[in-house]
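Entry type: protein chain
Record version: 2
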Amino acid sequence: MDEVNPFTIKTLLGANKLSIAFTWALVVARRIYDTRAFGKIRVNLGLSVAQKLAHLPISTRNARLDMSRELVDFLENDIPPLMTAIIQLVAALVILTKPSGSG
């Protein structure tokens, strides 16, 4: 008897082309939006910091502007993976603590 393995990469990709395309489009759209949003945040925060610290020496202003840029970089690059990890951890705990339906 010929046994068919339905879980090959080719069959999984073939069956889910639309789903994969939608997911990729969503990921790209989110990255474009994030880049624009965090760019605006970076500029507005930089202008605000520069205006508030206009009376300080240039080296102090430059250091604080760099710190504000690093804060925005942290929010843009490190918080999303952290939130993903937290959601995955909570989901895993819920799945593992859920009573099985087999009785």
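Comment: The chain has one domain: 12-97.
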